[in-house]
Amino acid sequence: MRLANPYIVRLQEPKETICFAAAQDIGAESLQQDYFLNFNDECFVLADGVSDLKGSEAASKLACETAIWGYKHIRQHRFYFHDKKRFMKRVFRSTNLAVWQKQKEIGFKHGIATTLLVVMIGPKHYWVGHAGDTSAWYVHEGKALKLTTDHVDPKGILQKAVGFKRLGLFPDFTSGEFPVSDMMLLMTDGVEKYLIPSDLSRIVNTPVVDIKDAKQRTIALIESAKQNGSTANMTVVLIARV
Description:
Layout: H1 6-11, E1 18-25, E2 34-39, E3 43-48, H2 56-74, H3 78-81, H4 84-102, E4 116-121, E5 125-131, E6 135-140, E7 143-146, E8 172-177, E9 183-187, H5 189-192, H6 197-204, H7 211-227, E10 234-241
Antiparallel strand pairs: 1-10, 2-3, 3-4, 4-5, 5-8, 6-7, 6-9, 9-10
């Protein structure tokens, strides 16, 4: 058995760590239509079921579960793993087909649909794919930048979502570097539409310290949205590299 050289170990820099937390509130709704899943701190998915269609809570749950399933299986193929844009498209295609197919079951004949936000985290980078109006934000040195564009028309009606049609769903895709001390925020529209810039800046103006700190910030974002009038379902996910 070989033992680690204590001098080499001592000189090594500590490994970077992904720290995340999530908070959720049902608001004044009777059902929680938001759903969130994480796999191994490397794939995060957030969905918000389309409330105009029956079974919205089933749509968001199915979308998240299928996206994580797809991620775990598709990443085993080198062709996709090294081309994250193709990887993301494949995840969305599999998820969209699963949700669209659900409408053939009893109780879903009028269709079901959901927004979907998928964030993949690597050693130094992030990759984001989305369809709908669930948003991703990137925070660097206390300044928040929205990475996603809401797929809604001037009246606020959703124009793109998982499950709207069987084929032809192409997610928006963006990527970037993700260094230590930066963070990402994932939010459903029940939070984002009610946040004012000063509240957001105040909550994210310093780097995340640990999980407890991250959790307190997600709760603060929910509370800010509620104070500003949100009665919808609300979900916030914070991902930080510490």
